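Dig into what follows:

_____
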Amino acid sequence: MHSVYLLQSQTHPDQRYVGLTGDLKARLAKHNAGPVPHTSKFTPWGLRSYVAFSTHEQVAQFEQSLKSGSGRAFGNRHLSPA
């Protein structure tokens, strides 16, 4: 399975990150360990939401849509915790 995930910084709640992975647990650990340049300055990160797909093509398409303006609005409305 492939997943699109949304992270939210626990120390800077206005900072969010969208990515894709085949191993969500390992990827979150890597973001929190610091070697990912884009996320290292806002650690620690919490998993806000994720969506799993059966193919890499599907997950890549959904990730790209979430990184667009309307996709960010969609994620804020529909992929936020209650």
